[in-house]
Each structure stands twice: as C-alpha cells, then as structure tokens.
C-alpha cells in the first residue's frame, strides 16, 4: 500500500472512530463488557438468590430467567457502546452478543460483539441502503466470528477442566492450591467459573477449594481497591464480580498477584484444615449474590466449624491479607494509586 493510500485509509478509520489499540479493545471494551455482565447475569443471580431464600417467585421465576437469557445481549450492547458504535450497529449488537454467548459464553459474546461492531462501523452510512447493509454486516460478521471462536473457547474450558480434574486426584494440599488458583483466575477472566464448575460437576472438598479461590479474588480485590473505590467497590466486587477489574489487569498485571497468592493460601487451608465442601452450583460463584456461601451451608449444614470456615477462609483472610500484600506492592512501586479504580459509586 502506497504512503498516500495508507494515509487515506488511516483518515477513513479515524472518521469511522475505529482505533486498533490495546486501550480501546482490552481496556475500554473489556471494562464495559464486565459491566454488561454485571447488569444481566450477575444482578440476576443476586435477585434469584434473594427470591429463593425469601420465597419471592417473581424474582426467581420471572426476573432471573430473563436476566440470564439476556446476558449475551447486554455484553454486546456494552461492548458496542464502549467502541462508540452508531445506533444501528449498537442495536444490532444485541444479536451478535447473544450469538457469541450461546456459542462461547461471555468471552464469545465479547469477541463476536467487538468484531461485529468494528465491521458495522466500517460500512455505516456508506451506502443508500444503510439500514440493511449496516445491520446485515454487523450481525453476519459477529455471528460468524462467534461460531468460529465458540469451539476455541470451549476447548480452552475443557483443557482447564482437565487440569482441575487431574488436581482432584492429587494430595489435598496440592489439589487445594491448583483448584483454588485456577478457578479464581477463571472467575476474574471473561470466562465463566460457574459454568466450568457445573460442567465438571465439582463436589466435596474440590468444590470447597474452588469456592476459596473465587472468594480470594472477589473479596480480595474488593478490599485491596478500597482506597480507589470505597464501599461502592466493595459491594460491586464482593457481591458482584472481580471481573470488573479485568481492564485494569490488562494495564497492570501486577495487580493480579495479591489475590492469586491469597488463593494459593486459602485453597489448601480449605481442603486440609477446614475441609470445606460445596456444590457444583456454588463452587464457581464465590460471594456473588452470596450464592456460594448459601450453597456451603446447604451442603455442610450450619455447624460452628462451617460458620468459622466461611468467615475465616472466605471473608476475613482475603479482606485482610490481600490488601496487606497489595500495600507492600504499592510501596515497592509495582502497583500505583488509581491502578484499581472502577467506575462505581462510593
């Protein structure tokens, strides 16, 4: 491509608000994607738990199925919004997000919506048949990408599952470390730790270790980022998801080290000292909507040892130890003020 053509192409991309960069795709779009997930699946899960515990059928039988089914669409709109999509592309992204989610979970929804949005922006208002061309290109490209990326994500989940299932055959200490660390990481990535746990049918102390890893990330990030996000951040991450931090982790991966270290500590504590158990449903949920904690009590009962395990492993240690490690890393310059900032109310 000649210098003149290259210059013209760059000008065209700028006019279309298409910016191929880490900032745009892996910070802006990924951060917005996490909010879309929260506004659908996660708030739906919280409301479903309230409905089940307090016998409110409207929440568990009406609101929850709708919120769950709209997860992909919410992610699609969130990604398109972050990329500055024009109206037709934004509206069409409800379909690309839904297709990506159906074929590859939240990560599939993210990729399908991203590609569909950018290609939709590329052709937007370039023809007299704009309403057909723009929506058609957005939907077809997004769904096609979703159908391609879905099996790849499925393969990744299967590979992670094989590692976890292998870990369950090891000694309790090693199993606790491996399961806790992996499931905690999956929880924070744009993947689904809940789907992984249910797919593998995690039960018993393996499910308990998975729960410990989730809590190390959710409660850990919530309190480690208290300086930046206050109590709004504690609620959003502690009762919602640590995935809200994913765009910050792209900018500074060092921020991930404290909760990973804590998960490697609480995992074996769960399997050896407290012998915590959980169900496949609760194992990958952590403290999101208190689902994992409720499932712990449903599985183990409400004895004093169980209560102590929940408080110490799932709340106290992550809430105290993660910020302690994080503050040390701040003093060493690995983490700077503002690195964990979220767009949440304080």
Beta-strand segment tally: 0
SS content category: mainly alpha
Assess the beta-strand content as a share of residues: under 5%
- End-to-end separation: 50 Å
Number of domains: 2
The major pleated sheet works out as:
none
Order of helices and strands: HHHHHHHHHHHHHHH
Overall mean pLDDT stands at: 89
Tally of individual helices: 15
Fraction of residues in helix: over 70%
Query: Radius of gyration in whole Å, from Cα?
Result: 21 Å
Give the CA-based shape: globular
List low-pLDDT spans: none
Your description of this structure?
With 346 residues, the chain is mainly α. The protein has two domains: 3-154, no CATH class; 168-331, no CATH class. 78% of the residues lie in helices and 0% in strands. It has 15 helices and no strands. Helix 2 packs antiparallel against helix 4, helix 6 runs antiparallel to helix 7 (172-188) and helix 9 packs across helix 15. The longest helix is centred in the middle third of the chain and has 38 residues, at 130-167. It starts with a helix and ends in a 15-residue tail after the last helix. The model has no long low-confidence stretch (mean pLDDT 89).
């Amino acid at each position: 491509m000649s210098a003149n053509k290259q210059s013209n192409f760059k000008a065209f991309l700028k006019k279309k608000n298409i910016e191929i960069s880490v900032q745009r795709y892996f910070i802006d779009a990924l951060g917005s994607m996490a909010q879309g997930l929260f506004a659908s699946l996660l708030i739906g899960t919280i409301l479903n738990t309230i409905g089940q515990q307090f016998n409110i059928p409207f929440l568990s039988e009406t609101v929850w199925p709708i919120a769950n089914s709209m997860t992909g669409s919410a992610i699609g709109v969130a990604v398109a919004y972050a990329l500055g999509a024009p109206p037709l592309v934004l509206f069409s992204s409800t379909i690309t997000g839904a297709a990506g989610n159906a074929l590859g979970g939240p990560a599939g929804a993210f990729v399908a919506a991203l590609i569909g949005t950018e290609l939709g922006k590329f052709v937007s208002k370039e023809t007299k048949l704009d309403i057909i061309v723009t929506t058609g290109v957005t939907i077809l490209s997004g769904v096609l990408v979703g159908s391609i990326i879905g099996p790849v994500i499925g393969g990744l989940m299967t590979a992670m599952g094989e590692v976890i299932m292998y870990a369950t055959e090891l000694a309790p200490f090693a199993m606790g470390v491996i399961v806790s660390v992996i499931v905690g990481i999956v929880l924070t990535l744009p993947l689904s730790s809940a789907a992984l746990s249910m797919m593998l049918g995690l039960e018993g102390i393996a499910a308990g270790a998975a729960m410990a890893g989730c809590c190390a990330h959710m409660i850990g990030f919530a309190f480690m980022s208290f300086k930046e996000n206050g109590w709004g951040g504690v609620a959003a991450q502690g009762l919602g998801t640590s995935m809200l931090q994913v765009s910050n982790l792209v900018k500074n991966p060092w921020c991930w080290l404290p909760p990973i270290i804590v998960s490697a500590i609480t995992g074996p504590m769960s399997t050896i000292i407290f012998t915590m158990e959980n169900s496949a449903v609760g194992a990958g949920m952590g403290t999101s909507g208190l689902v994992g904690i409720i499932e712990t009590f449903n599985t183990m009962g409400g004895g004093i040892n169980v209560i102590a395990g929940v408080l110490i492993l799932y709340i106290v240690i992550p809430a105290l130890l993660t910020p302690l490690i994080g503050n040390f890393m701040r003093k060493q310059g690995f983490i700077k003020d503002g690195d964990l900032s979220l767009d949440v109310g304080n």
